[in-house]
Amino acid sequence: MTLPNETTRITSGVASKRRRSVLVAGAAMLAMTLGAAGTAWSQSATPAETSASAQSEARATNPSAATPPASEGKVDVAKLMAPQALPDVVIGKADAPVTIVEYASMTCSHCRDFHSESYPAIKKDYIDTGKAKLILREFPFDPRAVAAFMLARCAGDERRTAMVDVLFDQQRDWAAAENASVALLKIAQLAGMSQDQFKACLQNTELQGKVVAVQEAGQKEFGVSATPTFFINGDKYAGAMSADEMAAIIDKHL
Fold it and tell me: How far apart are CA 253 and CA 14, in angstroms?
């Protein structure tokens, strides 16, 4: 499996339909292969969670030092925020004046880099202060990304964000692993899933279909063709952004 270099792009039409069947079938195969590799893990650690410990009053971002990228257009915010095949999980205050919708793939290296390098600063300066909220939507590019998103959903809405964080943090361990089932099982068990729950999650064809449906809606309705793609109060930005660049965009909406 090849990880993306900068942004990962997809094609439409017949290729897109063929890709849907590959994504769904591939995710199911991960569950099937577990039968031959099902190993009991005895680790007792829990997923990393964002700490609310006291932090310095200094800003984590410096928007005045950045030149934000130009928007690639604007979408209807009401349509963007309409119910999806899977319910949105909001990070931050629901009434925050700035809404960031991110379409990401769990196997996208630049999505991983955003969440490890830029997101903590954006969270500190804007999400934790009630100025912005973040919604991450599924846009898988391969069966392993489908499986990872499914596991995050099976963890429950209250733990989905922490599960996504762990999957991004450990992306190098499972996304290119020879046996993705074993690597993902280890992460799932750290989140409290049993081996049977893990297998049942990945064999849930209804959930598979909903994950892919969110991806297809992003592509067809909002023109998403690369990950990460961000919509900030409806303005579209495709590709990775630094924390300072995103902060400069957010400030324009405050």
Answer: 39
User: Which residue type occupies 199?
Assistant: K
The CATH number of the domain where 103 resides is what?
3.40.30.10
Domain housing 181: 73-252
Name 101's Cβ contacts closer than 8 Å, sequence gap at least 6.
Answer: 80, 81, 134, 135, 137, 230, 231
In terms of DSSP bridges, do strands 90-91 and 132-138 run parallel, antiparallel, or are they unpaired?
antiparallel
Q: What is the pLDDT of residue 43?
A: 36
**Residue 159: inside a domain:** yes
Has residue 67 been placed in a domain? no
Reported confidence tier of residue 240, pLDDT bands at 50, 70, 90: confident
Contact 104, 137 (CB under 8 A): yes
HSE value, Cβ hemisphere, 13 Å, CA-based, for 44 = 0
Q: Is 191's pLDDT higher than 80?
A: yes
Q: Which amino acid, residue 139?
A: F
In a domain, 27, yes or no: no
Distance CA 208, CA 180 (A): 17
Question: What are the angstrom distances between the C-alpha of 226 and each of 91, 107, 139, 194, 220?
Answer: 22, 12, 9, 34, 13
Of 21 and 249, which is predicted with more confidence?
249
What are the two backbone dihedrals, phi and then psi, of residue 46, each rounded to the nearest 5 degrees? -110, 160
Contact 74, 112 (CB under 8 A): no
Domain annotation covers residue 40: no
- How many CA atoms are closer than 13 Å to the CA of 116, on its beta-carbon side? 14
Q: What is the count of structural domains for the chain?
A: 1
Query: What backbone torsions phi and psi does residue 215 show, to the nearest 5 degrees?
Result: -60, -45
Which residue type does 224 have? V
User: pTM of the predicted model, to two decimals?
Assistant: 0.80
